[in-house]
Amino acid sequence: MTAEPGAQTTPSQTRIAFRAVGRSLAASARSVAGRLAHVARAVAEFCAPVTGVVSTVGWLVLAAAAVSLVIAFTFGWVEFAFLGFTLLAAVLVSIAFVFGRMHFRVGIELQPARVVAGERAFGRLLVTNAGGSPSAPSRIELPVGAGLAEFVVPSLAPEAEHEELLAVPTNRRAVIIAGPAVSVRGDQLGILRRMVRWTDPVELFVHPVTARLRPSAAGLVRDLEGEITKVITNNDISFHALRAYEPGDALRNVHWRTSARTGQLMVRQYEETRRSQLVLVQVTERAQYASDDEFELGVSVLASIGVQVIRDATRLAVLTESLPLRTATPTALLDDSSRIELVDRRFPTVRDFVRDATKRLPAPSVVIAIGGSLLPLAEFRSIETLFGADTVTIAFRVELGASSTITKVAGTTVVTVGDLADLPRLVRRVRP
């Protein structure tokens, strides 16, 4: 018989049983795998003091010894047996080199702790034997940036000191981390290495090169400070008019003579005075800069303007795609500017970046956007649409080696900076 169309078929009991058994086996397998992983982690933690001293070279030697012995016993080749036992003997001999205890006091000093890119900086490593007996010769490794400095510390009497000096490369803006300093005990082949950490990392700030600007940011903010707006407020310095008293008005704003003459309480109204809020934004997308040197020029422009605005005690916010910069002091801004790095595309457009970065800030009076030569002018102009008519938008377009000029594109002032030395002259000529 054939089943009628639309009729429900009865589920196979065998299929149901197989599915239940499969789910049970899968759950059991997951449980066993979890337990085995837990046991493996516990064994690894228990063996860490021993396995931790075996270097990568050591593991390769052990693996080669095991393979050689397996081949020797499988095929009866004496040469591989000799090779395997020789490698195992090398591992056993290297064990003697990791024994011993060190009692050191280690200090790292960087002089100075902050430099401008291109200036000289030096590091000092001081090792003191804090034990009650002479120390054995040892080796100290000190990571400095992307490099590694190695020093041999001779045998030291109790409380004796050993000093090492090193030059720190500061060719480019960066935050160079020195440390931690670790002592290394082990064999000359590097099969076993026992390391002891003695210090915490120390930071050296390599600040960007900046140009000295005149006070008041050379006119960028000075022309806006104190400017009267059309906004009416109850507290300011520019008197506008009188109006009838409303519940909640401050009594200090009551104009008593007019109130006495009219028989009704009258309060003062004021025209709001603009208080400068400057926002500095730098585009750090890799695709917007022609070279790394051009990007460094952009960071220098950002730091130069920001430092002068902070010195003028103007409210300032400095923003990039990766992080907001501190603006409490010029030093804090320069420290954070040392951390600015190129990033890959994080926002669809520059307008989206600026909108997201400034949405929690008060309405700015001046917005300065800094970008590379590959950033279209239309992207700069799009920033202007994010703010009201009272906000002035200025674009600094860095193009290494180009002629420094100032142009007006719609409502945005575009300043092309080809050399940092031209920045003071350009900023003096900019008028919002």
Q: Going across the major beta sheet, what is the strand order?
A: 16-15-14-17-18-20-19
Overall pLDDT confidence: 82
Distance between the termini: 92 Å
Query: Helix tally?
Result: 9
Order of helices and strands: HHHEEEEEEEEEEEEHEEHEEHHEHEEEH
Helix fraction by DSSP (H/I, runs of at least 4): 25-40%
Low-confidence stretches: 222-229
Q: What summary fits the major beta sheet?
A: 7 strands, mixed
Structural class: alpha/beta
The number of E-state strands comes to 20
Strand content: 25-35%
Could you tell me the radius of gyration in angstroms?
35 Å
What can you see in these coordinates?
This protein has 432 residues and is an alpha/beta fold. 31% of the residues lie in helices and 28% in strands. It has nine helices and 20 strands. It has helices at 13-51, 56-75, 78-95, 256-262, 292-311, 330-337, 350-358, 377-384, 423-429, and strands at residues 104-111, 114-116, 121-129, 138-144, 147-153, 161-168, 174-178, 182-186, 193-197, 202-207, 228-233, 238-244, 266-273, 277-282, 315-320, 324-325, 366-371, 392-398, 405-409, 412-417. The strands form five sheets. The protein has a seven-stranded mixed sheet with strand order 16-15-14-17-18-20-19, with helices on both faces. The chain has a four-stranded antiparallel sheet with strand order 5-4-8-9, with no helix packed on it. Strands 1-3-6 form a three-stranded antiparallel sheet, with no helix packed on it. α2 (56-75) runs antiparallel to α3 (78-95), α5 (292-311) runs antiparallel to α6 and α7 (350-358) packs parallel to α8 (377-384). It is extended, with a radius of gyration of 35 Å. The relative contact order is 0.09. The model is unreliable at 222-229 (pLDDT under 50).
